[in-house]
Design goal:
Layout (H helix, E strand, L loop, with lengths): L1 E6 L6 H10 L23 H7 L7 H9 L5 E5 L3 H15 L4 E8 L2 H11 L7 H19 L5 E5 H6 L1 H13 L8 H10 L9
Parallel strand pairs: 1-2, 1-3, 3-4
Length: 205
């Protein structure tokens, strides 16, 4: 069994990458967050992981992993805007359920300024505290670097390059996620993943 964890700051393009994974045939969950005003193609955040990190129903990391692994997919993934902070909980839960699971990270990168602009735009017409957003983003960028030091295989994905060259970026993602597996995405899945990438959904424009 292999699990792909999508990590990146809110506004960095994690929803787009999660959608790419889903179109490539990677099961992102039976219960995920859907479209919003600022995310019309779907958030795809793991509802159970959100409940875990926010303490709902006193859910444990092991319970989260049990629920997700019981969905019956040998290749599955999870995306959360908090994954870059709470990834130890995800790893802990999976390892407690089955330490043989191959855990990999897809790390979504984008410039700090673009992330800040995206988060600022998504909060309009409200009056967001820009200094708070800037502080949160800079802390998040530091946390994201910690994930890369965690010792698991990871693939850095530059969101701007994904937008500019979806074909090559999607193929790189597919190669990483399916590496050494007997299954591979078919041509239709790859094409669907490429077509899913929408350059118009850059919130700062």
């Amino acid at each position: 069994m292999r699990c792909i964890l999508v990590a990146g700051l809110e506004g960095s393009g994690t929803s787009c990458v999660a959608g790419v994974l889903q179109n490539l045939g990677i099961h992102m969950g039976n219960k995920v967050y859907g479209p919003t005003r600022s995310n019309p193609k779907g958030d795809r955040g793991d509802w159970y992981f959100h409940r875990l990190v926010h303490g709902g129903d006193a859910q444990t990391s092991t319970e989260w992993a049990r629920i997700r692994m019981s969905e019956g997919h040998d290749l599955w993934g999870a995306k959360s805007p908090q994954m870059h902070v709470h990834y130890p909980k995800a790893v802990e839960g999976i390892n407690r359920m089955d330490s043989s699971v191959d855990i990999r990270f897809v790390m979504v990168h984008r410039s700090a300024q673009s992330i800040m602009d995206s988060n600022y735009a998504k909060r309009l017409p409200a009056n967001p505290d820009r200094k708070h957003i800037e502080s949160s983003v800079r802390r998040g960028v530091s946390k994201l670097k910690d994930v890369e030091k965690f010792g698991f295989p990871f693939l850095p994905v530059d969101y701007d390059k994904l937008i500019e060259s979806p074909q090559s970026s999607v193929l790189n993602i597919a190669d990483f996620c399916y590496s050494k597996l007997v299954i591979t995405p078919n041509n239709d899945q790859i094409q669907d993943a490429v077509e899913f990438v929408d350059p118009s959904l850059r919130h700062w424009k």
